[in-house]
Amino acid sequence: MKIAVAGTGYVGLSIACLLAQHNEVVALDVIKEKVDMINKGISPIRDKEIEDFLKNKKLDLRATLDYKDAFKDAKFVVISTPTNYDDETQSFDTSSVEDIIEKVISMNIDTTMVIKSTIPVGYVESVKAKYNIDNIMFSPEFLREGRALYDNLYPSRIIVGEKSERAIEFAKLLQNGAIKQDIPIKYMNPTEAEAVKLFANTYLALRVSYFNELDTYAEIKGLNTKDIIDGICLDPRIGTHYNNPSFGYGGYCLPKDTKQLLANFDNVPQNLIRAIVRSNRTRKKHIAEMVMRKNPDVVGIYRLTMKAESDNFRFSAIQGVIERLKEEDVEIIIYEPTLKDETFNGCKVVNDFEEFSKKSDVIVANRYEDQLFEVRDKVYTRDLYSRD
Question: Are both 250 and 351 inside the same structural domain?
Fold first, then answer.
């Protein structure tokens, strides 16, 4: 069948590659450069499996700037456009999702829209009422940036926010594209599916915050953080995953999803959700304070990316640390090879590593890399396991 995918970020492009193994897939984007790269078999984002699939796999996939070309005769239109969190409205900006919905409606075609973008709890029911439509459902994604296609090939679960034949059909499409067998599949009403997505990501943020606060305690008290974490995580109920201290949870998903869930808790008793959001701010403040205790004249920021094996630095935790360091009387320089500009957020970019390391009194690295070994005496990091 023909399937359209609107949006070619991590979510959209990974799903497009997954489904294009067995279906005709047309990916829609508004950026010509990305469309051209996909049509040449080049990934516009860093993701090992996506890069491999586009280059080496036989996929029935093409990209276009023309929404009518993409949507015509499509059995499903998968919506995976960005939904940034707006602090003023305390809600996701869903305008890009609604733009796709309105385009589909304008074409008067027989298709089912499947929202993969992260949305507020109750959103699907609200758009059904707003546009007087029923041909739309929600299926949350649980993907890691940089491993998005891998997580589609080996999914922990498939959830579709509808109990219907078309929901079963869409789940089978995802299942048929995957390598993993016996994938748990769960069907539920759309509002519950929306809640699953936000509560799942907020739990992950909680876990990050927990181990970061443990690390803050150990650092201030002069204790060995790794010994404490290793001892705690040998308990199988806790486990040895997602436990590496960092400068805070960052990236495109966790910061905005925790804020959205907190907003959805309006008039509902809670303490924990607000504490998770506050904990992340406190952690960044602590990191900046520990750096300044070293009395540097020049602070070097090693990489802006949110985590190892990623080229994305949207809302990365290190940027929150930079903002706090900018309030101090200290010069800040940045080493980020993916940046072509000479400055970033008012800070000088120095992409000659030798020059960068010589100029820096302290090198602040959210994640440790082999390149830092020769200057390890200058490095400030809380990375214990060189992962996550």
Answer: yes
Tell me, yes or no, whether 179 and 250 share the same domain: no
Q: What is the pLDDT of residues 65-99, one digit of tens each?
A: 999 999 999 999 999 999 988 888 888 999 999 99
CATH of the domain at 54: 3.40.50.720
Report d(CA 170, CA 215) in Å as an integer: 43
Torsion of Cα atoms, 143 then 149 then 150 then 154, to 10°: 80
pLDDT at 184 exceeding the cut of 70: yes
Closest CA to 48 of 150, 141, 142, 144: 150
With respect to residue 203, please indicate whether it lies within any of the assigned structural domains.
no
- CB-based contacts of 336: which residues, under 8 Å, 6+ apart? 301, 303, 304, 305, 313, 344, 349, 351
Q: Is 272 exposed, middle or buried (0-12, 13-18, 19+ CB in 10 A)?
A: exposed
| 327 burial type by CB count under 10 A (0-12 exposed, 13-18 middle, 19+ buried) | exposed
Residue identified by tokens 């640390």 is: 321
pLDDT, one tens digit per residue, over 258-313 is 999 999 998 999 999 999 999 999 999 999 999 999 999 999 999 997 665 555 67
Show the CA angle centred on residue 349, arms to residues 297 and 146, nearest 5°: 115
Residues classed as catalytic:
253
Q: Which two tokens stand for residue 131?
A: 């546009």
pTM of this structure: 0.91
Where in the sequence is the domain holding 9, given as residue range(s)? 2-188
